[in-house]
Amino acid sequence: MATGADIRAALGEQMSASTTPQPRPAPQASTKARPSAPTIKPRRFKKPPLRARVRSAHWTFEASPTYSRQDQLAFRRWNREAPPGSASQTSDRFAKYNVAPDVPTYDPETYEKELADPAWTKEETDYLMETYRECNGKWPVVADRYISTNQRSMEDLKARFYHISAKTLSIQTPISSMTGPEYNLYEMLKAFDPHKEASRKKLAEGHLSRPRDEVDEETVLLGELQRIMLHQSTLDAEREDLRRRLHHPQADSSSYQYSTSTALTALWQQLLAADRARKVQRLRPAEVQPRPSQAQAAAPPPAASEQNDTPSELSKADLARFGVVLAQEKLPTGISFASDRLSKPRVAKSTAQTDKIATILQHIGVPELIPLPTIPVIEQFEAIMSKVHALLDMRKLAEKEEQELRVRQAEVTHKSSASLFAGILLLAQLAAAVKPMVHLDYSAYAGTSLPNGVTQWLGIRYAAPPLGNLRFAAPQPPLASNGTVVQANAHGPLCLATDAGPPSDENSEDCLYMDIYAPSNTTKWSKLPIYFFIQGGGFNTNSNPNFNGSGLIKASGNNIVVVNFNYRVGPYGFLASKEVYADGSINNGLKDQRQALHWVQKYIHHFSGDPCHVTIGGDSAGAQSVDLHVTAYGGRDDGLFHATAAESQSFSGLRTIGESQFSYDNLVIRTNCVDSVDTLACLRNISAADLQAVNFNTPFPGGQNPPLYMYGPVLDFDFITDYTYRAYAQGRFVHVPAIAGDTTNEGTIFTPKNASSIGDSDTFMKDNFPTFTIPQLRLWNSLYPVEGTPTFPDSGRYWRQVSNGYGELRYTCPGIFVSEVYAKENVEANWNYRWNVIDPPAAASGYGVSHTIEVNAIWGPENVGGGAPDSYMQGGINHPIVDVVQGYWTSFIRCYNPNTHRLPGTPEWRAWTREEEYVRLMFQTNATHMEGVPQAQQAKCRQLQHIGARPPSLTMQKIIQRTQRAERAAARKTAKAREHRQRGESWERSQTLNRQRRSAIDNIREAQRARKEDWALGPLAPRRDVGEKKATYGAMDVFTYQLPELDPEARPKWMHISVGDRVVVIRGRERGKIGTVDDVTQERASVRVKGVNVVDLNVPAWLQQEVSAGEEPTPVQAMARPLSMHDVRLVYPLPDPETGIPRDVIIDRLVHVNYTFDKSKKEWTQGDRLIPGTNTLIPWPEKTEPHMEEHDIDTPRFTVDEQTNRTCLLHVPMPLGVIDELRNKYSRFRTRHDWEYIDRKEQEDLRSEKRRELAKGMRTPLQELAEVRRRQKEEERQAELSPDQLARIGEVIASERAKGTRALQQGLA
């Protein structure tokens, strides 16, 4: 068995061997034989074992190198001399327990980009980091050893180190991805202020160097304060006894009544009167000393007796110091305080003026009772009150001027009034022009004012990043930022496209951004129309990104706001399968567009836009998106848009979820997710780069080659409830003004240029429309023969044949069909166009007027990011068409009519109506005019409509059955999810309640500990309202302000207290107070009483701007905290049974009576409140109209209202029934009717017309043929004869007359 000596020897050998550079022979003790165990002799007392005396180490002042410097310059420092043999034991033996300080690391590139500071060089920063590491993070040692040419204090070193640490932490972990501890550390590092730290140290140094007299004085004051707090209950009892003796009524409120000298003077006079009348012994003057009674002898001596030994006279300095005012040398007639200067300015001549002063003081945070009215405080208060009175005088003057202005407006003529208000409005616009800085409720964006008079905001986030679990999911509202201002001066990245490269700076999965353009000279009251543009790209790419809206704005005369944005495409936006339907969302790209429209409704007013005047437009897939939004949810009108302008709108083939399953399965196979139990989770977990590597088109089932666009909208029977042709034909769409149109050669850029046979043509069509049957292809070939089509160099013979058919099938005919349906639905504001502006190079190559080429002219060729034809540019042959189309387009955006503000000299764009069908405007350079749709094209489109609108019947039956099963499964899933959600919400509520209770317990314990510490240390107790808690010490956290939400079964069935009721608090620290209820929450069974239970609330930084209401944000706000319903009782004045005089009565219980269920609103009526046991009904408080505060963005009514009708009679001269009889209202011979009767008759005529139209649609083929022949005969009868025909008829008549004349002459002869 080894002894302790062997172990120590072995350890010594190992330590010495590890610390010495050269090996040494083992100590002699380690080679000896193991000694035998010593014999222990019994001893009464054990002596402590002898320990080796270790001599204390000395300090040496010697030069030591600085390894953190590159030159390793040696400085002389004090170092402790290590004792012999201790270096090895301390440096190596316990090295594994050393904790290295956490020092931020960075590379030169990161330093130059993020961490550079003009006051610090990189070498000095590196030197600071090395010194911090060498000194193990001990700042006093760092400051002592830090040597630099610049004078750096410890606070400067800390500020630089913490700044570097915060920056590197935010670079390594983005703020949105930080955990709670990481974010708290980041906030703490970022909030360090070297000036506050230096001030804190100086304050502490000043406290330590206070003179003895000041410490003694503070000790006395603190002791007096503690004595007052301890004897508070005694003072309250004495006050109540005094009230009883004076027969003083009980106060209605627990607030202190004697805060002014006036109230105390009245009390003093009452006491003197009581002394003279009743000879109250203790109220006699001090020189008369009667024998005290037993009650007086037992009572504690008054506080004034403890100060009898103090001198009765004070110096002038002491009088000013303690705020004492001497009234008279003899017995005073009243009492005066220095605080009178704080109370008298609050009282005005009128009650209304006094209330206004109190409201202003409460708004700026001046309390009603100032505890320490020192001379500086009084002077500051008087300065504030002078400003308050000046403000009230200015308000009164402004109100008077406004009244005079209105009177003057009523007197002057309309012309002078208009000029006056135009000047006022012009000044208001100049003073309140829209600013580039926009504050939204989730972030703040700083835009850029351009020299052309347009302000742009680029890269505004309108939805949360669709990453992680939000991939393949519906868009969510944008997340709140950390309070920083986002510089909106760069476009957001585009969404990842199909058959494209990996993510980059220009393309990202986090792509839900929008750009906004608005005139710089507008105001918040402008309410300009909005053009909401949806870019195209076949739902597989963003093909029209980052268009600049300045051209449209300038063309409109600075009268519109332009919005364009990105949305998810390809599999990110349109992946569909049963897995995605179960745990994700379908048609997410369209839902991104819908989310952007909701964003516009909520926030566009900050950019001077009018959310009630939105025109949505788009080209290609964007135009198809317009159609899908118009028919979304079965044609439901959500008020998101009010007009549409579609360029080359497309009716692509809609597939069901089952028909789209193949694309999901192919993607799962290519991403190696087949073996995953949850394939959708596997697709969500792989990176965007890996997903992009396998994101390419594959053939449709039944196709031979990949289509042009594999992903697209899906018939989900929710957002898209039916095929687009059928939805329009059945009238299930939002009826708004619309523009639709296309180009002359829509299909040339899509079809294969080398198509040289009918097989190539049919293969292309089958690849892109896999549901095409052989009979349908045969019909399509007959409609588009190759004969008569032109040929071009480097192209196949069938290129123009397939391009003509593809263009009309997908783009041209849908536009004609939409305009036709609008006319049948009596939508008068309906226009159609054909773009036929010929570009010479495109015409020579055979592409002609290609797909969406008009977008370059609508936006302006310099605003589309390149790609516009040269002929559209300034000086080109087609440049004049730019102003023409922009005039029509901006006029439609502004007033839903393209003719109102069109370019002067351009033709009128006639609408496509039931009276004038198949008319459209043909855009052509210097030859724009109206034309009709050719009959041949109309016939082709009717044939193609049947192909696009009639789905297979068997497929539709399967869809209906699948939908019914899905609805039942969804109902079960919804019920289960509802139950799960309710359990989760109940658990969350219980956890919230437990957290609030634990927080309250912790606060109470902390307060008790602090009180004990203050009591024990007295004036030497540490201050707690310093540092980060200087402004918020003692304030309540905002998350514990509200009472916890109750479970639904624990909530009260009805609230017997309403807003406006008066209640009394029966429990808590505010017991006995009466106030008015200004908020009631049934979910929490709580009420908020105005001015009662007021607490200091610690307002977070992100909420301070909203709460401050335009004032300087403060971290602490005084707010009334809600009370539980069980802690208050209703107070209502009821007549006294004896005197009949109403007096306030506390009502303990009420019952709910006379309530019914409103079937229209699906809720219970309010009913009445009854006191049980009596027949007394307590009425509900009268609901007053809410006070609407005026804001800068409001439009004053008097600026837009014009009085046009001035009634002469103040009252109706006779009963309305007599007036109706005089007007002959009930006679069947009446010819003048009121508007209700006219409207009813018009509706009846409309229904009759619809029935006739429906009957026409049910005719047999023979009846249709007869109707066609009848129309042809009418047209032939109505045809006018030409001059040549009339001349020919005249010649025939003349010749016949000549023949008759000659025959007559021959007969006579």
TrEMBL record:
Residues 41-51, 972-981 have a biased composition (Basic residues). GO terms for molecular function: RNA binding; structural constituent of ribosome. One of its GO terms (cellular component) is ribonucleoprotein complex. Transmembrane segments: none annotated. Gene3D superfamilies: 2.30.30.30, alpha/beta hydrolase, Homeodomain-like. It comes from Salinomyces thailandicus. InterPro entries: AB_hydrolase_fold, CarbesteraseB, DAMP1_SANT-like, Homeodomain-like_sf, KOW, Rib_uL2_dom2, Ribosomal_uL24_CS, Ribosomal_uL24_KOW. The keyword Ribonucleoprotein applies. CDD domains: KOW_RPL26. The keyword Ribonucleoprotein applies. Pfam families: COesterase, Ribosomal_uL24m-like, SANT_DAMP1_like. This is Myb-like domain-containing protein. Keywords: Ribonucleoprotein, Ribosomal protein. Residues 112-165 form the Myb-like domain. SUPFAM superfamilies: alpha/beta-Hydrolases (SSF53474), Homeodomain-like (SSF46689), Translation proteins SH3-like domain (SSF50104). Belongs to the universal ribosomal protein uL24 family. SMART domains: KOW. Residues 1-51, 283-313, 972-1000 are annotated as: Disordered. One of its GO terms (biological process) is translation.
